[in-house]
Design goal:
Blueprint lengths: L5 E5 L3 H9 L4 E5 L14 H13 L3 E6 L8 H14 L3 E4 L2 H10 L5 E3 L8 H10 L3 E3 L6 H11 L2 E8 L11 H6 L17 E4 L8 H4 L8 E3 L4 H6 L4 E4 L6 H21 L8 H10 L4 E2 L22 E10 L2 E6 L3 E2 L3 E5 L5 E5 L3 E3 L2 E3 L1 E2 L4 E5 L9 E6 L1 H12 L7 E9 L4 E8 L4 E9 L1 E2 L7 H8 L7 E10 L3 E2 L2 H21 L29 E6 L2 H10 L3 E5 L11 H14 L2 E5 L6 H17 L3 E3 L2 H10 L4 E3 L8 H9 L2 E5 L6 H8 L4 E8 L2 E5 L3 H5 L12 H4 L3 E4 L5 E6 L5 E4 L3 E3 L4 H7 L3 E5 L5 H16 L3 H14 L5 E2 L9
Parallel strand pairs: 1-2, 1-10, 2-3, 3-4, 4-5, 5-6, 6-7, 7-10, 9-11, 22-26, 28-29, 28-40, 29-30, 30-31, 31-32, 32-33, 33-34, 34-40, 39-41
Antiparallel strand pairs: 7-9, 8-36, 12-13, 12-21, 13-20, 14-19, 15-16, 15-21, 17-18, 17-20, 22-23, 23-24, 25-27, 34-39, 35-38, 36-37, 37-38
Helix pairs in contact: 1-10, 1-12, 2-3, 3-4, 4-19, 5-6, 5-18, 10-11, 10-12, 15-24, 16-17, 17-18, 24-25
Length: 837
């Protein structure tokens, strides 16, 4: 039988920690007050972290610390201090997104295991292999992968593989979303996602006309259902998954207790019966749904589910179907129950007009008489906040009994996981009493009395009495699995003495167990390499080179006509356009050489293993021609390295956010780095001081989201787990999302049927060109893949004139009005001045 995976539980605060441990978690993941992707939950300060790690470790539960946000240069000293402290406290691993933090950990605390967060967007085998070579122990895979993808990455990477099995899903590849950041300044990469994807949107065509009726399918077009793979655990185990991860650090402790308990029970059943004897009862499914659900999905495990992935009608907990309204009088409603209803339950009526009516049930009448519980098939009467109509559906959103059961599981002091121990005692007159507790790992707590036991005159200690006293471990983390008592006849030992020795043995065993986790202190101030601290060196004013990203020969010619110095050729194409071929790259390279322009082979930000195979000839052509290659994910980076490309450039989806990230990329052979668009001008200036060849995006539609889910394909093209898409993106042209304020966010459907959502307004930093010159930024870039050739030519020409002007400030002021007219939705400076939270 395959190894039973670790069960990894979410912990957002101390109560959730007790719930997770009590319910059978093998490990928990939790965050400090900073540097974690759930910045709005309770989390733990350093004192609480120490207590949490102690609580878990004594009970044999591992603790993984979430260090999974991007970290600014100004925060690196604080980050180093936090890292070294949690290392000393004995954290079992840290989960990281920022390559700079990974670099810091590998340099400073190399024996602290590194886990790559799902925020790193690892979605292909070469990316996982690269992490293994860097020193990572585990990868948390992107939730967009299929069972076959997971199996291949596990087999070929030699990394531990962690997979989400239950909880909320992001519609975007985790770590690749700027939607919350660009709309409201709250960055998911900084732990502050406002979840604008859960809001209401309309899908519109190029003329702004709605193409689907939200009344019919629902308005929450970007809101996925919740992941639930409990039926598929045997297949995930067979694929080699090492850790089953439950999402939910923002959920209530009762949710954590319920879901962890049910998944633990499922794993125990598999361990007992194997795959053939495995099954999930209707009761388990009902409890999981009652705990929280937006509807359930198995995600992408078995392919693209299309609309079956989504919860279009509502973005929050839908509860479990309870019954229907059969009549109402005023605020009283008679319900025909399809399931049990009890006083204290939460219910919600989906009214035909007006949305939802919810309440906590205070009183139930059955045949006119008060009752605590109404059963399935019965007709009961309840009071609601407002009138409802016959036929309205009723859902139970909270089950009082299930919540009480969950709370009881972790609020009782002796509840939860306990560590099995061997108890031994030697009691004989004339020698000190010895009591010892030993766990399976060999840790021992041994207590010896200060005085020898005496010979009894009247009431000698019996083995039964001694055993009864020594077995009293009720409020401790231990349970006696076997006992060896050696009690000599006629010996006298006060009961109080045995109680004290038992307590002392427990304390010493606990100390021994914790000592195995503690590490020697590390000086945080010695962790930051001097070269990558803010340098404050004298800046050299330079004229940045002007780059344009293009994905067709027509767009490339437009960029050249406008005066581009650098062409990034390749990457995503949209709405049926054909991707560039190797021969076109060769043709453009010749044209660039004739005009003295640099041509760079570029790749898409998401490239699954089959796409990397298809990309190889393109990179091979670049290598043969001596062209640089630009990549946007770790797998494409590894492919480029293996193919020996002459120069390697890294795009912004790899998130260069601080100076330590620069150090990591330099170590991997990168020469030019595009900075994150979430950096502000002061942060850009500081990074420019390090002396790297840096690039900034200054113009065009910034991509807010890339998703394996395609909205047009799902609601217009019939895409589902059973049906292929009819490609409305090709037949009907371009689409956009319209929000509640009427703002339109353009959509692009790429050659791999992924959906890309772009910001409504164009980024425009034309007036800031003097800043980039003064800061020493080597390259400024226009995003042109999603724009027509005429737009590319005119914007490139405007930037060219400003760059070449003797007085760029005045030139920028002259050119800006015309450039703004090219963007009907308006322009934005993005995060250049405001930065992100």
């Amino acid at each position: 039988m395959a190894k039973i995976p670790e069960l990894l539980a979410p912990v957002g605060g101390p109560e959730a920690l007790r719930a997770a441990v009590a319910s059978g978690a093998s490990a928990v993941y939790l965050g400090g007050k900073a540097f974690n992707a759930r910045g709005y939950v309770t989390n733990f300060d350093l004192k609480e972290l120490e207590a949490a790690i102690t609580y878990a470790h004594v009970r044999g539960v591992k603790v993984y610390l979430t260090f999974n946000t991007l970290v600014a240069d100004s925060e690196l000293e604080e980050a180093a201090a936090f890292l070294t402290r949690v290392y000393e406290l004995g954290a079992d691993a840290i989960i990281v997104q920022d390559m700079g933090i990974a670099y810091l950990a590998l340099q400073c605390v190399p024996d602290l295991p590194l886990h790559a967060s799902t925020q790193m967007s690892v979605h292909n085998t070469p990316g996982a292999r690269l992490l293994k070579d860097l020193g990572f122990q585990r990868v948390v895979l992107a939730r967009e992968l299929s069972l076959d993808d997971i199996r291949q990455i596990k087999a070929e990477s030699r990394l531990e593989v962690e997979v989400f099995v239950h909880g909320a899903l992001c519609v975007c590849y985790s770590g690749q979303c700027l939607m919350s950041s660009l709309i409201g300044g709250r960055s998911g990469n900084r732990g502050r996602c406002a979840q604008p994807c859960r809001l209401e949107y309309a899908l519109v065509d190029k003329d702004g006309q709605a193409v689907v009726d939200p009344e019919k399918i629902g308005p929450h077009l970007l809101s996925p259902r919740d992941l639930n793979t409990i039926r598929d655990l045997p297949r995930l185990i067979a694929a080699g998954v090492d850790s089953f991860k439950i999402e939910g650090r923002a959920k209530r402790p009762e949710y954590v207790a319920t879901v962890v308990r049910l998944y633990r029970r499922a794993l125990d059943l598999y361990a007992e019966r194997g795959a053939e004897g495995y099954g999930v009862s209707p009761g388990t499914e009902r409890e999981l749904a009652q705990a929280f659900n937006r509807g359930f999905t198995c995600g992408y495990l078995f392919g693209r589910p299309g609309r079956e992935l989504m919860s279009y009608k509502r973005a929050n907990n839908r509860g479990v179907f309870l019954g229907r309204v059969i009549s109402s009088r005023g605020r009283r409603a008679r319900l025909h129950l399809a399931a049990e209803l009890a006083v204290g339950d939460g219910i919600e009526v989906w009214v035909s007009r007006g949305g939802r009516v919810g309440t906590e049930v205070k009183r139930i009448l059955l045949e006119g008489q008060p009752t605590q519980v109404g059963g399935a098939g019965q007709v009961v009467e309840v009071e609601l906040p407002q009138r409802v109509a016959p036929g309205d559906r009723v859902f139970k959103t909270a089950d009082a009994r299930l919540l009480a059961q969950a709370r009881a599981s972790y609020q009782v002091p002796a509840s939860g996981q306990t560590v099995p121990v061997h108890l031994a005692a030697v009691i004989a007159a004339g020698r000190p009493v010895e009591v010892s507790l030993r766990d399976a790992e060999g840790h021992e707590g041994r207590a010896v009395s200060a005085k020898p036991a005496e010979k009894a005159l009247k009431h000698p200690l019996s083995a039964a009495n001694a055993g009864e006293l020594l077995l009293r471990l009720g409020n401790t983390p231990y349970r006696v699995e076997d006992i060896a008592l050696d009690v000599a006849p006629g010996t006298l030992v006060p009961f109080s003495e045995l109680n004290n020795l038992r307590r002392e043995a427990v304390e010493r065993l606990t100390a021994a167990r914790l000592a195995a986790y503690r590490r020697k202190p590390v000086a945080a101030e010695l962790c930051l390499p001097a070269r990558f601290k803010p340098a404050g060196s004298k800046r050299t004013r330079v004229k940045p080179r002007l780059a344009v990203t293009v994905n067709s020969f027509a767009r490339a010619e437009a960029a050249l006509a406008g005066g581009a110095d650098v062409l990034y050729f390749g990457g995503e194409t949209y709405n049926g356009e054909r991707p560039p071929r190797p021969e076109e790259l060769e043709q453009l390279a010749r044209l660039g050489a004739e005009q003295g322009r640099e041509v760079v082979a570029s790749s898409a930000r998401i490239t699954a293993d089959p796409e990397l195979t298809a990309l190889a000839p393109y990179f091979r052509t670049a290598e043969r021609l001596g062209l640089p290659v630009q990549v946007g994910n770790l797998g494409a980076l590894r492919l480029a390295q293996e193919m020996g490309v002459p120069e390697l450039y890294l795009d912004w989806p790899l998130y260069t956010f601080n100076a330590l990230t620069l150090a990591q990329w330099e170590k991997l052979g990168a020469r030019r780095l595009t900075l994150s668009p979430e950096l502000n001008r002061e942060q850009i200036r500081d990074l420019a001081d390090t002396g790297f060849e840096l690039e900034c995006v200054v113009q065009g539609q910034l991509e807010m989201m890339v998703s394996e889910y395609c909205l047009p394909g799902s609601v217009l093209g019939g895409l589902s787990s059973q049906n292929r898409c009819s490609r409305p993106c090709v037949r009907q042209g371009r689409f956009a999302l319209r929000d509640r304020k009427g703002v339109l966010f353009p959509l692009g459907c790429d050659q791999s049927c992924r959906m890309h959502i772009f910001n409504a307004m164009d980024l425009c930093l034309l007036a800031e060109v003097p800043f980039f010159q003064e800061a020493g930024i080597a390259v400024i870039r226009i995003e042109g893949r999603n724009r027509p050739p005429e737009y590319i030519k005119r914007t490139t020409a405007a930037y060219r004139r400003v760059l070449d002007a003797d007085e760029p400030e005045k030139a920028g002021a002259r050119e800006l009005p015309a450039l703004e007219k090219l963007s009907p939705a308006g322009v934005t400076r993005g995060h250049f001045y405001r930065g992100v939270v």
